[in-house]
Amino acid sequence: MKSLYEFSSFAMTGIIWIVQLVHYPTFLKVSQDKFVDFINFHSAKITIIVFPLMSLELILSGYFSYTLQTSFWYSQLVITLLLWFSTMFISVPIHNKLTEFNEITILKLISTNWIRTILWSIKAFLLLTKGS
Fold it and tell me: Are 71 and 132 a contacting pair, CB within 8 Å?
């Protein structure tokens, strides 16, 4: 099960870096007449990918924190909870505001997404250096 946790965390780290450096900046390049369709497509497809991985991280970090009770697993759980909080209370509300092209909102999405990018990078770093 630990390898499944590692897979989900490393996968999300890669995904978030692609989203941060490529995908979200692409929002600024989409024509305004196609923007709503693009955002709807993005939201539907990205959810299919990230929701199962994020859920797996949450369930397994909780499980390992409870059963192993080590500072390593507590830190993984705390970071995972911060990621969920950031996603639900920062990123999703900004996404929901994108009902039309709005450069300021897109730039806010890009800048606030650094929170998640850094948190997933820390998780991956901890997994690589401490191991499970």
Answer: no
User: For the segment 87-129, what is each residue's pLDDT rounded down to a tens digit?
Assistant: 999 999 999 999 999 999 999 999 999 999 999 999 999 999 9
82 CB burial (10 A radius; 0-12, 13-18, 19+): middle
Q: Which residues contact 17 (CB under 8 A, 6 or more apart)?
A: 117, 121
pLDDT band at 132 (very low <50, low <70, confident <90, very high): very low
Reported pTM: 0.94
What is the distance between the alpha carbons of residues 62 and 39, in angstroms, rounded to a whole number?
A: 32
Q: DSSP states of 53-79 as a string?
A: HHHHHHHHHHHHHHHH--HHHHHHHHH
